[in-house]
Amino acid sequence: MRTREQLAARLSELQTIMQGIVAANPVTVPKEEQDKFDAALAEVQSIKTEEAELVEAEKKAAANKAALAAIQPITTRTTQSQAVFAGSHADTANVTIKSEVMTAQEIVTRFANCPERKPLDLTAKNGGFRTLGEQLQAIAQAGITNGRGEDPRLHWGNTTPQMAVSGSGASVPSDGGFLIQRDVANDFTSRLVSDGEVLSRVDTTDIGANADRLTVNMVDETSRVTGSRWGGVQTYWGAEADAATAKKPKFRQMELTLKDIIGLAYVTDRLLMDANALQSIYTKAFSEEFTFVMEDGVFNGTGAGQMLGILNSNAKVSVTRTTSSHIKYEDVVNMWSRLYARSRKDAVWFINQDIEPDLYAMSLTIGTAGVPVYMPAGGLSGNQYATLYGRPVIATEYNASLGTVGDIVLADLGQYAMIRKGGLQSDSSIHVRFIYNESTFRWIYRTDGQPKWTTPVTPAKGSNTKSPFIVLAT
């Protein structure tokens, strides 16, 4: 394959030949001259094809170099590496990288001298913490020594997310905290979604490392009456063209600002020595607790320093209860009729379990008999969830007690927006519970949420407003 320079030189020669033929024969061209011109033109086209192939070859070569540079060495640990996790100094831990035994501090020094070989993110596969329990032990050790002799994996590179802290100090745990290793944190946060019947249904956005809020332009639609849809868009039939009036959409801004959820746990010194137990207990305990707080916020958040919940939002529609302290078939019908039509395929009934006796007693009278309205899970229905109007019924701890607002909620949670920052931060102190031989762990997770709607909408036909969020009044 010729080089770019060779192709350019030959192309210039051909252009000179073709220009000479055109200049010498402005009116008619002898056959032999035309044959020369055609041959030169064919070669020009061949050069262009060769140039395109050269560009592709250059791209592949660049991609090969990038792929080769991205390959990281396989990292393993010697058995001595467990010493750091049992409470001894991180400096004494031995880690094997490319068959070379180095202390933890030597690892930091080696990569400082060869930054191109340093992984941007530590993972369990390239020398990072293998579990949450191991990292908690390292964090606790850092708290005990007040930052002296810390495991360097807690501060993996001053410019990478691995070392992010919220506070003034980068090396003193009491000044801020340590971001849980990315792959360990991802496992933790995935539990929040997979374990939560509510969080798995909301519209969640992960925001970047340098952001603490999300501002979204939303269509300001409060009515579906002609001329108000999409905040003011209107179309006309052709016969009405003479009377057409220019319209444009109207927008509003929805702003979500990260808020801290803080968790505390006390760990005995005996438990602190067992990485497996730490992993098992605290992954489960805190994933469940953070899930509870966030899902409760979706329903009951006040919006003041926390998420704005459905029950405290102006977007909800409140339906009058037909019988005090009970839920009747008429209540369910009225709630369903006020649900925004486009939300029906995604809506879910969330209930307090105390209302189930009323649900089981519901029936639709037909002549002298009746048919059940509420279909329990399993049995003849074969469904995972019980259903009302074909939509799942899910019991939660977040719904209010029977007879109060929130005991039953019909909601399309795809119309609830949530943001989160993809890091779980933790730090430790031995001082809070020193006399009890316990260490204190503090966890911080940053999130926010609110309904996408600010008010119910007026339908195009009819007067009863509609919303994706329907509740039953007291």
Can you put this structure into words, describing what you see?
By secondary structure, the chain is of the alpha+beta class. The chain folds into 3 domains: 4-70; 75-179, no CATH class; 180-212 and 258-474, no CATH class. Helix content is 31%, strand content 21%. The chain is built from 10 helices and 18 strands. The protein has helices at 4-24, 31-70, 82-85, 104-113, 132-144, 182-194, 269-272, 275-300, 329-338, 356-360, and strands spanning 75-77, 94-97, 100-103, 178-179, 203-207, 213-219, 251-257, 259-268, 317-319, 348-351, 363-366, 369-372, 386-388, 391-395, 408-411, 416-429, 438-451, 469-472. The strands form 5 sheets. A 6-stranded mixed sheet has the order 9-18-15-10-14-13, with helices on one face. Strands 4, 5, 8, 16 and 17 form a 5-stranded mixed sheet that branches. A hairpin with a 2-residue loop joins strand 11 and strand 12 (369-372). Residues 75-104 and 157-177 have low confidence and may be disordered.
The beta-strand count equals 18
Strand-and-helix sequence, N→C? HHEHEEHHEHEEEEHHEHEHEEEEEEEE
Q: What percent of residues are in strands? A: 15-25%
Largest sheet data: 6 strands, mixed
Helix content: 25-40%
Contiguous runs where pLDDT drops below 50 for at least 5 residues: 75-104, 157-177
The separation of the N and C termini measures 82 Å
Count the DSSP helices: 10
Q: Tell me the number of structural domains.
A: 3
Radius of gyration: 33 Å
Shape: flat
Physical arrangement of strands within the biggest beta sheet: 9-18-15-10-14-13
Instruction: Tell me, rounded to a whole number, the average pLDDT.
Output: 75
Helix- and strand-based class?
A: alpha+beta
